[in-house]
Amino acid sequence: MMKNTKKLLINLFVALLFVMALLIAGCSSQNANPPPTNQVSPVQIIDGVQAVTLTWGKFNYEPAVIRVKSNMPVRITADLSRLQGCFRSFVIPDLGVYKNFNYNDNSVEFTPSKQGTFRFTCSMGMGSGKIIVE
Hints:
Elements: H1 2-29, E1 44-46, E2 49-56, E3 61-62, E4 65-68, E5 74-78, E6 89-92, E7 97-100, E8 107-110, E9 116-122, E10 128-133
């Protein structure tokens, strides 16, 4: 009986390592290419809020570049049918924006007060893009 338990634990450990390797490889392969810099977001102004939908493009976030105005609220809504894994964890460190998107809460709102170009990424830094605040 002890032999069977030991064998089962070893098999579970190997399976766990395999799943972890798949998860890590899947997230890192999604960012095989850097985001194109000419792909600028179609930001819409809805009720005084700059709104954009963040989805999955070719190996990265789409849009790769989001251009907004400073001192005006921004709402980024995640397309959860396309964003998977670590790409649902969204951060803009220099603007203090940190969000884990889920089906109950798939958007983040903030008002950028400083102008410049700021990098956004998934929580692991694999996927990335930039937000330009003018």
